[in-house]
Amino acid sequence: DGMNMCMFMQNTLTRLMRLPLISVALIQGKAFGGGAELTTACDFRLMTPDSEIRFVHKHMGLVPGWGGAARLVRIVGSGAALQLLGGAARVDPERALRLGLAEETLPSSDQTRALGEARAWLSQYTEGPTSVIRAVKKVVTAGRELPLEAALRTEKDIFGTVWGGPANLQALVRRPKHK
Known about the structure:
59% of the residues lie in helices and 10% in strands. It has 179 residues and is mainly alpha-helical.
């Protein structure tokens, strides 16, 4: 049963990570074990002041099985990942920022206010033509997951889908030269 859940969750979180949209995990409270793994499948992580992330798998006689360890290494590097996994270390917002595990600590711990703050923060990445946002996500995913030559081909192919497209033509009309 554990292996079935492992395979299901690896597949689910990999699909989340590869969605052609920008995702954010809003950590309010404690993201332990599987919750910590889930945060690694998102493009960004935002934390509220009293929140924490903790990979407690070691205390359960386990290692992450949903892909959280592999993604954590890519986010914070192998040394920091070893500390967080091997020590089941508590990661408060300040430490998460230092490690690159979180992008920002939101001002509010209030659930409703924090959600609004997260939406406002995320809007800087999600406002604009959907086709361009999806293309950005695809080239970043290719750069992260593919060997360099394949990532370069993918980037070229995706560039070809937006070059001369409606968003590109509208941008040229609005701003013919960069300022």
